[in-house]
Amino acid sequence: SSMPRHYQFTFDQLAANTKALLKKLGIDEATVMGHSMGGMLATQFALQYPGTTRHLVLLNPIGLEDWRGMGVPYVSIDTIYSSELEKDYESIKAYQKSSYYDGDWKQRYEPWA
After folding, report:
1. What gap in Å lies between CA 78 and CA 65, rounded to an integer?
2. Which of 33, 75, 76, 99 could lock onto 57 through a cystine, CB 3.0 to 4.6 A?
């Protein structure tokens, strides 16, 4: 399917889409249910629209952390993409060395850097 160039499939956007659908259907309150990734969406919906969420039912949900509530700022996909374009072999290798291998970098790891 096609979509606008800058449309992002974030959980914020998916929750807003769900809210818009409920509004179009004339539904003011709903019991929101979600399983797995749907549980993450249901949780996001309940956080964004507590007045619309009568009950929240979750079955084996993923991603229940409220990163925004913990002060982590939202970063757009365009920003992330731009950041990825700036990376080169040396910066990737430096990240790998600082994050993995417990500081014990070996020459044989080079192909994976």
Report:
1. 23
2. 33
Residue with tokens 């919906």: 45
Q: Whole-angstrom Cα distance, residue 94 to residue 89?
A: 9
Identify whether the C-beta of residue 23 lies closer than 8 Å to the C-beta of residue 42.
no
Q: Are 70 and 86 in contact (CB under 8 A)?
A: no
> Does one domain contain both 97 and 55?
no
Domain count, the chain: 2
Question: Rounded to whole angstroms, how far apart are CA atoms 45 and 41?
Answer: 6
48 and 85 co-located in one domain: no
pLDDT tens digits, one per residue of 11-61: 999 999 999 999 999 999 999 999 999 999 999 999 999 999 999 999 999
Map 57-98 to HEC letters: EEECCCCCCCCCCCCCCCCCHHHHHHHHHCCCHHHHHHHHHH
